Amino acid sequence: MEPQNDIDDLPKNPANFTALTPLWFLERAATVHPTRKSVVYESKHYTWQQTYQRCRRLASALSQLSIGPGTAVSVLSPNVPAMYEVHFGVPMTGAVLNCINFRLNPLNVAIILGHAEAALVFVDQQYFALAEEALKIMEGKSEGLFKPPVLIVIGDETCDRAPLEYALSKGVTEYEKLLETGDPEFPWKPPRDEWQSIALGYTSGTTANPKGVLVSHRAAYLMSLNVVLTWGMKEGAIYLWTLPIFHGNGWCFTWSLAALCGTSVILRQASAKSIYKAIAEHGVTNFCAAPIVLNSIVNAPPEDTILPLPHVVNVNTGGSPPPPPILLAMSQKGFRVTHVYGLSEINGPATVCAWNPNWDSLPFEAQARLNARQGVKCMCLEGLDVLDTKTNQPIPADGKTIGEVVMRGNMVMKGYLKNPKANEEAFANGWFHTGDLAVKHPDNYIEIKDRSKDIIISGGENISSVEVENVLYTHPSVLEASVVARPDKRWGESPCAFVALRSGGDHVSDERKLAEDLMKYCRSKIPSYWVPKSIVFGPLPKSATGKIQKNVLRATAKELGTL
């Protein structure tokens, strides 16, 4: 009889193998720090023991409503405690959590609810009318086969009670009443398989063919640890929710905060004033924000700021390439900014502009330029490269050649729900294709130049809208800037800049002169064919996450007509 080779043949058993899931973080937090604050919202404070009990109550109550594996539960809400709790309570039942952008219109919401086949919808009282209208649209298109999802309204004492009272008059159950029906000792179980979906998020709700991103328990677990390890977050961190929680499940910081036994300070609506106030009152150590939010922080009026800061505050920024002048201004005010890059399909940061100690001796301006790059792969991402879009081969690390950013690894989404064609395209050649165009520098740090749909092709030459924007941001009169393509009779396309001015800066009484001044300024810093041929002044449209909506600006530029 041949001896057994136990090196690779020993079987898994319950003692040495279980499905990875971030849900265990909550159980640990309640055990290790039961009395530490878990959530702070206005006058409400919860401990980790209370949050664990509330999430188990929620899971128990949902199970009594036949919510379980294979079921989607949607949430339409700004940042409130319930929005944090559903990230544990819903998947504890085996169901999949679907957070929806509350700034979408009723048709967009209806498309997502229908595509996700949501069985239940949690809706904040402020957005109850939006949910009602979405359900009416769904009913009108169902041809009599519509089974409406159960609605649960989330009340908020800090808001006008009229919408809540209206919802209750319709017989809708209030969130806290639902929790009262649940068992605080509910015996929840982890998923049978870590490939099971924990979350479903949508990259867009504006078409009849939405892209629903499915995230596994395994990916959420790894991303939850990835974000804290990459950032160097400490145990007991005090995290300020300026990032909308619906956005990529809060970049998985929802689960990370439980892993760290930290405290979530929740803002229903973030502003520069509320951010500075929270730092002073709650000792905030960390927050995430898009560059546009950082812009509001550095340009806040003196009466809304608290400077110097009482301590160093760590900031994660991403969502769009941050202009170096904004990074410089944040640093000068005492914020330590880490630049990360990710997508909905990764559910959080995939790359980080890891700080090189050799940069410490450089001037602030040079440091900001280096920190504006998207950087290198995070420690839990297995593959990152920039490929030639025609040959699918890696581009040279020369800082000039442009290719598409691709990734692979355990943090990448499972795929798009009910969209095999999109999955085939996204995962072509064994990589996840981001659609972002970038260069790779000699130090192997990548730097995004544009989205593939945002690159401007003028006379056959590529123009990076990001680089033009970065130049505009250095002008003293410019508060915000975004550059898109405008139809051009001679060149096919030419850069069109949309600019918001600083208050107290140049008035737009003479738009022509101001536009000429900005063009002259750009001409001194970038190639002449990169200089915007048209400039539009006024406020810029933004998404709920603070991103400037280039799709809206592209449509506006098209409406302006051909140059």
From TrEMBL:
Domain AMP-dependent synthetase/ligase, first and last residues per copy: 26-417
Gene3D superfamilies membership: 3.30.300.30, N-terminal domain of ligase-like
Species of provenance: Citrus clementina
Keyword Zinc-finger: no
Family note: Belongs to the ATP-dependent AMP-binding enzyme family.
The entry's keywords: Ligase
Source organism, top-level taxon: Eukaryota
A UniProt-annotated Pfam family: AMP-binding_C
GO molecular function: ligase activity
Protein name: AMP-dependent synthetase/ligase domain-containing protein
SUPFAM superfamilies linked: Acetyl-CoA synthetase-like
Keyword Ligase: yes
